[in-house]
Amino acid sequence: MLLLICDICQEELSIDKFLFQSSCGHGFCTTCTDATKSRETCPLCRKPKLKNVPPHRVYLTPSTSRIEDHATSLTNSLSILDSGSTPKQFRKVSSKLRTIANSKALGNSDIAVQLLASAKNMEERLQYIPHQLQLERDEKVALQRKVDLWHARIQMVESQERQIKCLKATIRESNQNVARLQSEINKLTVCADGLRKEQEKLQKVSDQQKKTIAEKEVRLSDLQLQVEDREKKNRLLKQKLKAVSKSTRPPADGNESLFIDSSNTGH
């Protein structure tokens, strides 16, 4: 059975457990293929995947197993390890690299030297991974704090914007009310002007009537004086007539000039 090593998980599996990309030819186990299917590029060479062409199986008839190919596959897997990979993945790859490099089949070949150098480099990188992860965590926390701060500020700004909208609506309503009140004031002003003019006319009529009444009062006063004078004269005349009517005998001297003819008295 032909066994292959997945460059992602470093598991040694039979070839029927692998699926290969049509764009570049790289293959990974079915588990890693499913885990990376959302990526638009190959995890190993970063070449864009073909759209609408799913990974496929390949069927080979191997002759012999070559440890050099095994070592080369492990070396290529180093390119996909980054800060997102777990320390377990790093240690697993490093351990396999040392195992293959120290095998008798490789001896002191260039591949063995390369594998040992890669293992050493990986172990050195492993020492910095916890520190790098902590730095990334701290940076994430700091960024989250900034995000929370900006989120609070955004909420405050949104609240202020809502208040501004409410104030603008209130101002518009107030302006409309002011316009209505101004219209009413204008109408009342016109009405007041009309009333004032009417009052002035009525005042003139009233003044004229007062003047007429005063003139009539003067005339009535004059007439009253005339009536009183006439009544006074009538009383005097009546007194004279009464005094004359009481005289029953003519005067002793027989002077006819003092005789009053009764026919002139109206009796």
Automatic annotation (TrEMBL):
It holds the Pfam family zf-RING_5. Keywords: Metal-binding, Zinc, Zinc-finger. One of its GO terms (molecular function) is zinc ion binding. Residues 6-46 form the RING-type domain. InterPro entries: Znf_RING, Znf_RING/FYVE/PHD. SMART domains: RING. Residues 239-267 are annotated as: Disordered. This is RING-type domain-containing protein. It comes from Marasmius oreades.
